[in-house]
Amino acid sequence: MEGGGLVRFQLGIAYDGTDFSGWARQPERRTVCAVIEDTLSMVLRHDVRLTVAGRTDAGVHASGQVAHTDLPAAPDLNRLARALPPDVRILSIQPAPEGFDARFSAVRRHYRYRVCDQQWSADPLRRNDTVTWPRPLDVDALNEASRLLVGLNDFVAFCRRREGATTIRDLQRLHWTRTGTLVEAEVSADAFCHSMVRSLVGALLAVGEGRKPAEWPASLLKAETRPSTVTVAPAHGLTLVGVDYPPPDLLAARAEQTRNLREHP
Where substrate is bound, by residue (predicted)? Predict the structure, then answer.
């Protein structure tokens, strides 16, 4: 329970990022945060501000985004669905456990990247969330290179640096699978820097198509700045699919620990 009769709620959110300029509010641009905040404010007649688990870039999708906000009451999901545009939905809204912070309490985020490496078989119904790649990809080479990147590292070579923010991250999973002509990467970490997943994918695709050796992406971990040789993969292949949190009794401690780490690199 917050001051003034407000209750903290946890929101589960999904969106098609195609026509959004990312999550965060930007002047004169359509963003996921602005659409949801403005819609909730209108429905509840209360000024709503969201804290989110991860701010996605323009064109990136989500099926498992998590946010929190302090509200006087939970709105009806059907009423919200009627008020929201069809490319964004609030899938769940429930009172949050004590100490919950959607951003700082999270212990890991999960992303999926989808690539079709045969242009003739690209599914037109999945064109908004699957990248069509012009050359065949070697999944064994992709996984060999990916294994060398997993662990606690400074990923400055794969991040767009933000002033005062650390680029040290614990990359816990990076694995590729093939189903026919569809190649998918599953990527999990405690947190991600700006453009980190797409930069990792861009470097790995160069390995998968045979332009770079398997050791090349990991060799970039020695860099002190972002090299120009790293290509950022297209945004529309990326989807935030889930966020993990600790048990309720550890939420507040996790939030304090993470806040200190992120704000004081």
Answer: 111
Annotated active-site residue 57? The verdict is yes
For residues 190 and 170, is the Cβ–Cβ distance under 8 A? yes
What distance in Å separates the CA atoms of residue 131 and residue 152, rounded to the nearest whole number? 29
4-41 pLDDT per residue, tens: 689 999 999 999 999 999 999 999 999 999 999 999 99
The reply to whether 108-242 shares the fold of 3-104 is: yes
pLDDT 10s digits, 108-152 = 999 999 999 999 999 999 999 999 999 999 999 999 999 999 999
Q: Which CATH number fits domain 108-242: 1.10.10.10, 3.40.50.720, 3.90.1150.10, 3.30.70.660?
A: 3.30.70.660
**Annotated catalytic residue within 16, 38, 57, 101:** 57
Give the C-alpha separation, 72 to 13, whole Å: 20
Return d(Cα 99, Cα 197) in angstroms, integer. 29
Q: Where are the domains of the chain?
A: 3-104, 108-242
Going by C-alpha positions, the residue among 237, 191, 231, 171 that lies closest to residue 207 is 231
Prediction pTM value: 0.94
User: What would the two tokens of residue 117 be?
Assistant: 């490496």
Name the binding residues for substrate: 111
